[in-house]
Design brief:
2 domains, Amino acid transporter, globular, mainly alpha, membrane, transmembrane, 13 helices
Length: 299
């Protein structure tokens, strides 16, 4: 799947955006189906799992486990961040980027919350945590012989997700190479198809390396720590530059209260997990440090 999508992204940008549109619609159709099923279940009085009692299948919850849980939760919302990677290919970015982030964050929040509610109309907290694929378990419980449609939709969702990350993250490598922060070959464009082919292929290789791990939650924690540390440090630059260089042109400007809240949140979800999961955060630091020899050797 990764190889096929790498080919699509190397061949034509329009192909990759069409793939993304199609599979996004498929994902939303699956989620709407689950949400409607949940509404039907709730209307029949299936509210036994909506309680504040501690589920025996759930381990002890404290501030450290809450901080770690943010990595898995924020993983579902990280699309807003990927939008920034393709700003060079966006029409009227100063107008459309904030609008796209605003609309998508609201849409994802509403759909994600309603989907969780739908799951708990049938599954307990322990069953949700223990399921390898929650949507599939939900479908097997309620859809009978039609349960096969949900694994198909899950596969479509995964396919679209991989395509989106390949498309956007490759632009991050491309931009880094343009700024002389990564090997120059990643800034090259395929002359016939006008796609950043070396960057896309590099992203594919990196993805295949990550697949060597079978623990998806460990991967999310490793990459989550590295990602939110990097984003948090980037946002720290915003109030600093407002203070040091107040006259810089700012086509997109927000009230400083928002970056301050964001910085405090970033500190919480990067510092607390260091005590809760030192091994996971240690691997996250190692992922960041792998860039040091690349920089000194190739740049």
């Amino acid at each position: 799947m990764t190889g096929l999508l790498t080919f699509v992204n190397c061949w034509d940008v329009k192909w990759s955006t069409r793939v993304q549109d199609f599979f996004t619609y498929g994902k939303l159709l699956a989620l709407v189906t689950i949400i409607i099923t949940g509404i039907v279940q709730l209307s029949k009085g299936h509210t036994e799992h909506f309680t504040f009692e501690q589920d025996p299948a759930v381990p002890h919850v404290d501030i450290t486990t809450i901080a770690l849980s943010f990595y898995s939760g924020l993983f579902a919302y990280n699309g807003w961040n990927y939008l920034n990677f393709v700003i060079e290919e966006l029409k009227e970015p100063h107008k459309n980027l904030p609008k796209a982030i605003f609309i998508s964050c609201i849409l994802v929040t509403v759909v994600y919350t309603l989907t969780i509610i739908a799951f708990h109309s049938t599954l307990s907290v322990g069953e949700v945590l223990g399921a390898e694929a929650v949507a599939v378990t939900f479908a097997e419980r309620l859809y009978g012989w039609m349960a096969w449609i949900v694994p198909v939709f899950v596969a479509m969702s995964t396919f679209g997700g991989v395509n989106g990350i390949l498309f956007t993250s490759s632009r991050l490598f491309y931009a880094g190479a343009e700024q002389k922060q990564m090997p120059e070959i990643l800034a090259m464009i395929q002359i016939n198809h006008l796609t950043p082919t070396p960057a896309v292929i590099f992203m594919c290789i990196l993805s295949l390396v990550y697949l060597a791990s079978k623990d998806i939650y460990a991967l999310i924690n490793y990459v989550g720590f590295a990602t939110w540390l990097a984003i948090g440090l980037a946002v720290v630059c915003l109030p600093y530059l407002r203070w040091k260089q107040p006259d810089l042109p700012r086509p997109i400007k927000v009230n400083l209260i928002w970056p301050i809240i964001y910085i405090l949140g970033s500190i919480f979800i990067t510092v607390v997990p260091m005590f809760a999961d030192p091994v996971g955060t240690g691997f996250g630091c190692l992922i960041i440090l792998t860039g040091v020899p690349v920089y000194f050797i190739f740049i």
